[in-house]
Amino acid sequence: MTHLAMRGGAPVRTKPFPKWPVYDERDKQALIRELENQEWGIGSPSIDAFERKFAQFCGANHAVACTNGTDAIYIAMQALGVGAGDEVIIPPYTFIATAIGVLTAGAIPVFADIDPLTYNIDPESIREKITPRTKAIIPVHIAGNPADMDGIMQIAREHNLHVMEDAAQAHGAEWRGRRVGAIGRCGTFSFQTSKNLSSGEGGAIVTDDEECSERLRTFTNCGRVKGGLWYEHHELGGNHRLGGFQAALLCVGLERIEEQMKKREENARRLTGLLNEIPGVSLTGSYENATRHAYHLGVLRYNPEAFQGLPKKRFVEALQKEGVDCADGYLPLYRYHFFRHFQEKMSAYHELYAGKADYDSVQCPVCERVCENESVWIFQNMLLGEKSDMDDVAEAIRKIQNYADEAF
Ligand SMILES: Cc1ncc(COP(=O)(O)O)c(C=O)c1O
Questions:
Q1: What is 25-253's CATH number?
Q2: Which atom, in ligand 1's list, is nearest to the CA of 140?
Q3: 203 by DSSP, 3-state: which?
Q4: Which tens digit of pLDDT belongs to each residue from 3-22?
């Protein structure tokens, strides 16, 4: 007799996890108001209101709304004056947008390894990657779990580097009680559908620095400057502006976000407790000074040895078949096709990149081990479920452990 659902046994659950994104009557009314005010783009009061509210939410002085989290990184690089030939240190355990934002600004992503506790960029590895061309560091608060901002800011001070936080997954996360985003010079957010604050697509950049905020706006808005005429363009700035309908949805989303954050934290605590009872699997840790985790993902740290050597990919398949949404997540960024064929793909820019970016020889051993053997994701919407949903996740994992021999 077989037990695992992947072998025909009954799955632990057939009930879906909570759907995401969510909406209610407030969103409908906000969209109708936006429709009726007939100012759907620049000039829409919703955009100004959202920027004000989002800055406040982040504990930052300024927020500039934009099209998405990828453009936000590009805009931030431009605003910070990071460009042709400069090197920017980023982690390899992130979505490709972190690198794309750097490359579209003409700069070169340089990969520093992650630490095994949080899967965030490791300050020690950053130090090893600094060269005279290094201009900025982009910590990514992966999964909503804050990177070591003390360590990173210290290195930045020592070497006079910009810190630009990629907080696409970290709305509301906190480091020493301070919301992430404006701890460095500026920080970027995404409001793409899956994100903890969503308008389908959308982004924002926050900063405490007034001059930086004006430059961010210039590069978001066709090179225009404060006080300038509509047809007056000072910089190579594209149109990366957020629309009014998205801003209207985001304003309502901000009314719900605190309650949702609390729910995710509560469920993550419960899941942590349940996983403590199962050897070889836990949620990733956080630094002591990470005072709030935004849980865009619940990242499981899986140890195949505790599952009779069952490879991570098979564990993920088995868990999915038990009715638990999960994924095996990223490869190290430099392993993707684009970076394997970097010189060929970027041949038009050879003068910029030739000899400076050889991604075939990059090695980040912690990231490679984590991607290959360890990291398994569950999603933020699952953490908005009931306690019994967490019980099901743990039960499915325990079941796979008990019958791991069936899963090979
Ligand atoms: C870490 C990270 N950075 C940047 C982005 C890019 O955001 P967007 O999809 O809004 O362009 C994402 C998400 O998609 C992300 O997860």
A1: 3.40.640.10
A2: 1
A3: strand
A4: 999 999 999 999 999 999 99
